[in-house]
Write a structure and sequence with these properties.
Number of strands: 13
Shape: globular
CATH superfamily of the largest domain: ATPase, nucleotide binding domain
Largest sheet: 6 strands, mixed
Strand order of the largest sheet: 3-2-1-4-7-13
Order of helices and strands: EEEHHEEEHEHHEEEHHHHHEHEHHE
CATH class of the largest domain: Alpha Beta
Number of helices: 13
Strand content: 15-25%
Number of domains: 2
Structural class: alpha/beta
Distance between the termini: 19 Å
Oligomer: single chain
Length: about 375
């Protein structure tokens, strides 16, 4: 298995759709062969969003949503094979994250909605899934898993931080190449999640494109200070979070204490919350970092990017400056995790997740 091609599928907490990336691994070198993005249909997005919060008849709804999600994943794989000219027989495995609907590592579990057996059946390709549970079983957070991949791809001559801004924002702290310091990381708090929620609620748009709506408002310092009082932000690494904490109810509870704010001011303050908590985490956990490298959908929010830039003294870059499209990084990471599984190599970093040790991540569903 010197040369191996895998596909990574990622649908994150933003609930916008699925990124599919094909990656070839050859003698320690990685080359990306292509990417497709397939948006969720509205009906599937609504099903998945409803399952991220407690509700009635969840088991039945989970079953229906998992079938629909596997069909959506299979279509993204079909489109990727068509685009790249790959065949199912030429792909070693699909690494699929699934859709997180509960993340409770403090209680010993994490749940990613998925139907990997059906995905294997529909694609004719082996599937590696359930990539977080093994780390959680070893006492870890099960998240973030991407720092190991970030270290493989983006370590350099200076200490840098890789910042992924999806629904949740997370950082990977990469020491300079050759350093004895470990790679560390964790979730800083909300990324696009609350910004998107407010955009849908007030403008009807699924997200604040380019941060234009937020740019029309101003930061309300009292509301921002209230947001920042949440105990999560004061926790040390390792830590991870999700919609269970930063939910619509969380936002509404805070807004109720600050009535009569304009919708634009709330949008701007939520954008500042994401930027401030990212910058605070970088200062606290990566004080030596000279470069902050962005990836994920938040990379393209100009208002958010400017807010981060104002608070970081070093160079602000994105993974495109290193030849990797910011929207490809997470899916490529799950292709990498599938490759690690097939080669029986660990995929976690205990210094990041606080697991008891390195673990091979995932479970195999043969086609």
């Amino acid at each position: 298995m010197t040369t191996l091609t895998t596909i990574g599928l990622m649908s994150g907490t933003s609930l916008d759709g699925t990124d599919a990336v094909a990656v070839r691994f050859d003698g320690g070198r990685m080359s990306r062969l292509g990417r497709v993005y397939l948006p969720f249909p509205d009906s599937l997005r609504e099903q998945l969003y409803a399952l991220t919060l407690p509700g009635d008849n969840e088991i039945e709804r989970m079953g229906d949503a998992s079938v629909a999600l596997a069909s959506h994943y299979a279509e993204s794989v079909r489109l990727l094979l068509e685009k790249t000219g790959l065949t199912a027989a030429g792909v070693g495995a699909i690494g699929v994250h699934g859709q997180t609907i509960r993340h409770r590592p403090e209680r010993g579990f994490t749940v990613q909605l998925n139907h990997p057996a059906l995905l294997a059946e529909l694609t004719g390709i082996d599937v590696v899934a359930d990539l977080r549970s093994r780390d959680v079983a070893a006492g870890g957070e099960g998240a973030p898993l991407v720092p190991a991949f970030h270290a493989e791809c983006f370590s350099g001559e200076v200490p840098r931080v890789i910042l992924n801004i999806g629904g949740i924002a997370n950082i990977s702290v990469l020491p300079a190449r050759g350093s004895d310091e470990p790679v560390t990381g964790g979730d800083t708090g909300p990324g696009n999640m609350l910004i998107d929620l407010w955009s849908r609620r007030t403008t009807g748009a699924p997200f604040d494109r380019d941060g234009t709506f937020a740019a029309s408002g101003r930061v309300d310092e009292a509301l921002l200070a209230d947001f920042l009082e949440d105990p999560y932000f004061a926790l040390g690494f390792p830590k991870s979070t999700g919609r269970e904490l930063f939910s619509p109810a969380w936002l509404d509870e805070h807004l109720a204490r600050h009535p009569n704010l304009s919708a634009a001011d709330v949008a701007r303050t939520l954008t500042e919350l994401t930027a401030r908590t990212i910058a605070d985490a970088v200062r606290r956990f990566a004080p030596a970092a000279r470069e902050l490298v962005l990836c994920g959908g938040g990379t393209y929010n100009r208002t958010l990017r400017q807010a981060i830039s104002r608070q970081f003294a070093g160079r602000l870059l994105d993974t495109g400056d290193f030849g990797v499209d910011p929207m490809e990084v997470e899916a490529a990471a799950f292709a990498w995790l599938a490759e690690r599984f097939l080669r029986r190599l660990p995929g976690n970093l205990p210094a990041v997740t606080h697991a008891a040790g390195p673990r091979i991540l995932g479970a195999l569903y043969p086609h």
